[in-house]
Task: inverse folding
């Protein structure tokens, strides 16, 4: 897979449509750059752009946008609610696919150097890209904002990382960094700006001071007034949503608002959001309200409703969730076979080609076995005749649903692993250095060719306890369907094991990782035969 980087530059212009559009055009017309979102704010006088592409293409796109800002934005007359120090105020690089945060740090440094050299402007590194602790946080660099920049540049501690330590009145300065995914999130408060800020101080990690820290880790927040909506907002940056996510900060702010006898009135995501964050919030409300929701689309709808994400503007998942946007805009080899018709896939299997082969088919057969089990559970659930069984079905149903979706992904992952191995074998090995690189890539690709079918085995094998429970209570009108499902899972494990074994041949099994994997694969194979036979006997006894 090609490396994919997200870039989210923030420009200090949110009111003049011609300038906003000119920056959009500069990005979208850069080869290899895909503009995903443009989010202007009138009160903040700031526009957040989100685009993705391969590393070098993203650097070129950011430079093209900076050139336009340099020509069209004059900081000497710029005002707005949001803190800022320059026309291109901040430009972070974020790993999306097949690239590390360290590689994004190097990319940000490359861009910072090119920007400073071409436009002759001061550039500060921040976040993961900054080695100086006191300069890692944006507020420390933007202290006093643009209006204080001229004096602050005279301080040796504020010497830019790239470019001149000189004030550029028209452009100001730029902060460049690398970070993991940041969620910009605003919660609407029917109160004053001061009341919103009071709640922000309670929840943000920094709190009011070192002696009065806030309650939520990895959270930055301030309160402000949103003139165009005639209400206050708590403006929040979630710097690590796996530590504090949308639902957690929303619930905390809602609790504080109620204590102040204020109402929350929905919330707003600025820019894009990872699907994982939405699904984490969905699981919270599913557990809290004891709901049974399986489909991803419905989980997304639940979160939109519970958090009021359409309170200011309609939240369109296809335009706001980054995975959905990337899927729409970029060809994705991760879903190549999943998106084929049944006929086209079968024809490819029967063609004179190595792919899709036994590994892909094993994963598909496992997905079908899990899907049939899911079908049998669903045809028992919600039926008045079997109403007393609903609590038991709810315990097993999510496992079947999740498994067949995960196994479907492994159909394509098996092919991706094989293609990576073939590509590694074709690398040049003329020099000693090339030989070392080639061997490393072959070993890495071959391990993945073993790991994927092993994952198919594990995913399929995890379902036996749930199938045992289902076999005792399922709607017997679906008896043959469940029997086929059980045999599909057993076959998937058999096929995946054959792929593990053939790829292990010639490998050094003194490697403990490979040795353990081989032993566990044999255990699963033996266990699956026993489990399938016993569950089929249980099903057979049902009338």
Result:
């Amino acid at each position: 897979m090609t490396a994919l980087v997200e870039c989210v530059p923030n420009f200090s212009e949110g009111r003049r449509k011609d300038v906003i559009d000119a920056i959009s055009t500069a990005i979208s017309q850069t080869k290899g750059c895909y503009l995903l979102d443009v989010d202007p704010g009138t009160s903040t006088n700031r526009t957040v752009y989100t685009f993705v592409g391969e590393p070098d293409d993203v650097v070129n796109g950011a430079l093209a946008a900076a050139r336009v800002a340099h020509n069209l934005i004059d900081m000497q007359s710029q005002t707005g609610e949001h803190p800022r120090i320059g026309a291109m105020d901040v430009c972070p690089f974020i790993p999306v696919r097949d690239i590390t945060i360290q590689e994004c740090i190097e990319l940000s440094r490359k861009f910072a150097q090119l920007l400073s050299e071409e436009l002759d402007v001061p550039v500060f590194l921040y976040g993961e890209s900054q080695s100086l602790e006191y300069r890692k946080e944006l507020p420390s660099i933007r202290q006093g904002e643009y209006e204080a920049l001229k004096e602050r540049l005279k301080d040796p501690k504020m010497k830019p990382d790239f470019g001149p330590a000189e004030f550029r009145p028209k452009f100001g300065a730029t902060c460049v960094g690398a970070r993991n995914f940041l969620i910009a999130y605003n919660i609407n408060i029917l109160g004053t700006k001061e009341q919103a800020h009071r709640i922000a101080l309670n929840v943000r990690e920094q709190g009011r001071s070192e002696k009065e820290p806030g309650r939520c880790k990895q959270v930055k927040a301030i309160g402000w007034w949103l003139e165009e909506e005639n209400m206050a907002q708590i403006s929040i940056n979630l710097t690590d949503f796996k530590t504090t996510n949308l639902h957690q900060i929303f619930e905390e702010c809602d609790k504080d608002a109620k204590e102040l006898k204020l109402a929350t009135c929905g919330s707003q995501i600025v820019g894009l959001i990872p699907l994982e964050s939405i699904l984490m919030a969905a699981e919270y409300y599913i557990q809290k309200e004891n709901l049974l929701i399986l489909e991803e689309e419905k989980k997304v709808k639940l979160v939109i409703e519970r958090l009021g994400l359409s309170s200011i503007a309609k939240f369109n998942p296809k335009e706001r969730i980054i995975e959905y946007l990337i899927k729409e805009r970029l060809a994705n080899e991760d879903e190549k076979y999943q998106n084929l018709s049944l006929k086209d896939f079968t024809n490819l299997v029967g063609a004179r080609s190595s792919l899709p082969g036994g590994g892909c088919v094993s994963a598909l057969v496992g997905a079908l076995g899990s899907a049939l089990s899911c079908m049998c559970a669903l045809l028992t659930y919600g039926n008045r005749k079997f109403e007393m069984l609903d609590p038991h079905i709810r315990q097993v149903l999510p496992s079947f649903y999740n498994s067949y979706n995960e196994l479907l992904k492994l159909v394509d992952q098996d092919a991706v692993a094989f293609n990576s191995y073939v590509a590694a074998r074709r690398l040049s090995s003329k020099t000693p250095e090339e030989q070392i690189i080639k061997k490393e890539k072959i070993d890495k690709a071959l391990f993945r060719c073993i790991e994927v079918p092993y994952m198919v085995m594990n995913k399929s094998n995890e379902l036996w306890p749930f199938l045992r429970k289902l076999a005792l209570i399922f709607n017997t009108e679906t008896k043959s369907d469940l029997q086929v499902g059980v045999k599909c899972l057993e076959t998937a494990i058999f096929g995946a094991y054959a792929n593990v074994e053939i790829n292990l041949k010639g490998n050094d099994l003194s490697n403990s990782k490979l040795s353990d994997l081989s032993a566990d694969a044999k255990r699963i194979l033996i266990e699956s035969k026993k489990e399938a036979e016993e569950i089929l006997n249980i099903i057979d006894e049902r009338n």
In short: The longest strand covers residues 88-97.
